[in-house]
Design brief:
By secondary structure, the protein is mostly beta strands. The protein has a single domain, classed as Factor Xa Inhibitor (Irregular), CATH 4.10.410. The protein has one helix and seven strands. It has a seven-stranded antiparallel β-sheet with strand order 2-1-5-6-7-4-3. Strand 1 and strand 2 form a beta hairpin. The chain is elongated, with a radius of gyration of 20 Å. The N and C termini lie close together (about 10 Å). The mean pLDDT is about 90.
């Protein structure tokens, strides 16, 4: 998309309400976000049977795919923060949408790897979260922000 802007603040982490149909609300106050797709590779290299001493050439296949999201910011008193803390403590699965400008919308179940709150004596309560998507993930490549 020529001329399209991709402002970081348009990258959103949205939590599902568990309803049918599911409604997603953004986690407000997130200032810095990171989205990562990692693919492990599996070495499938085999020496040729007819010439086992010949030079080997790497052969690989995809293994486990991991999609991770992290963010930090200022807690703004919304109920999402309680939902996040509860999901982390109770090890609940939550449906989440991640909107990445110029990429698309990634929807799936997340695990809360890490949830942290901090508060300087003369500042606002800050938080950081780390999530990993698990199971099937749907991607809407056309849902560009």
């Amino acid at each position: 998309m020529a001329g399209a802007e991709s402002k970081g603040r348009l990258m959103l982490i949205k939590l599902g309400d568990g309803g049918d149909p599911e409604t997603f609300e953004p986690v407000c106050g997130v200032k810095d976000k990171s989205f990562s797709i990692n693919n492990n590779t599996v070495d499938t290299t085999r020496p040729p049977c007819d010439d086992p001493g010949a030079p080997l050439h790497y052969s690989g296949a995809y293994g486990v795919r991991t999609i991770s999201i992290s963010g930090n910011g200022v807690a703004v008193g919304k109920p999402e923060y309680q939902k996040i803390a509860r999901a982390a403590i109770e090890q609940d699965y939550v449906t989440c949408q991640i909107i990445v400008p110029l990429w698309g919308t990634f929807t799936g179940t997340v695990l809360f790897n890490s949830v942290e709150a901090s508060g300087p004596m003369e500042g606002e309560v800050e938080f950081s979260i780390e999530l990993t998507m698990t199971g099937d993930i749907t991607v809407d490549w056309e849902a560009l922000v």
